[in-house]
Amino acid sequence: MQKKTHIKKGDMVKVLAGEERTKQGRVLEVDRVKMRAIVEGLNINKKHSKPTTANPQGGIVDKEGPIHISNLMLIDAKTGEPGRVGRKADKEGKLERYVKTKKKAAK
What we know:
- With 107 residues, the chain is mainly beta.
- The protein is built from no helices and 9 strands.
- The strands form 3 sheets. It has a 5-stranded antiparallel β-sheet with strand order 6-3-2-1-7, with no helix packed on it. The chain has a two-stranded antiparallel ribbon with strand order 4-5.
- It starts with 11 loop residues before the first strand and ends in a 7-residue tail after the last strand.
- The protein has one domain (12-51, 58-100): SH3 type barrels, CATH 2.30.30.30.
């Protein structure tokens, strides 16, 4: 069963938990069934590959591993600050996403 996610391919995200916390990257792929995303340059794993005709040498390849979506927070493209995701209707009634960032209290 596929679920709706707050993260989409191409989004800039910040990692909230785990070994890669506080790091940022671009989402390369989202798996909506397993609720995981692959983020560029984060959660690097070593993959051992056998020699093939395409890669006759074989060897060890660095590859990004998946991170659970609950550990990712969307970064606002305009301000560069992370925040929660909200949805609001535009003029045609179509839902569009926006980032809810912290607002400083006026003194």
